[in-house]
Amino acid sequence: MTRLLGVDYGEASIGLAVSDETGQIAQGLCALRRRAGGAGVEAIAGLARERQVVAIVVGHPKNMDGSIGPSAQAAEAFARALGDRTGLPVHLWDERLTTRQAERLMVDAGVRRAKRRTVLDVAAATLILQGFLDHRALAGPQPDRGEGARADE
Questions:
Q1: If DSSP codes are grouped into helix, strand and coil, which group holds residue 19?
Q2: 18 and 6 in contact (C-beta within 8 Å)?
Q3: β-strands 55-60, 90-94 pairing
């Protein structure tokens, strides 16, 4: 089984997605409200155990020029905390424009604005995870590069 968990670490909430057991298809899971004190890390660690995931993919919101800003630094720190807490490999995945892409897909599908706000983080997490899965499938079988591996470089 190669189930992975995708994470969109946002300012107000954390979107989550999970892959199927074959590690090929991502589907939205839920969104968690961000709270101080690491509650998000604990909740995600519990979901990772419950869903029996083998790795976690965290969106890495680089600036458009590829530089690392405050949001990317926060995502890196969150990814490290997840890896420390779960003991699972955590991969950072370039998520530039993922939230905009998710919103565009929902607009095109006719999803009302109020509903979009509630599912946007989950949709972004799904796109992040699917991008990682697709990249992995194209790259072919490779040994896991381990905790903290940076799949976006």
A1: strand
A2: yes
A3: parallel
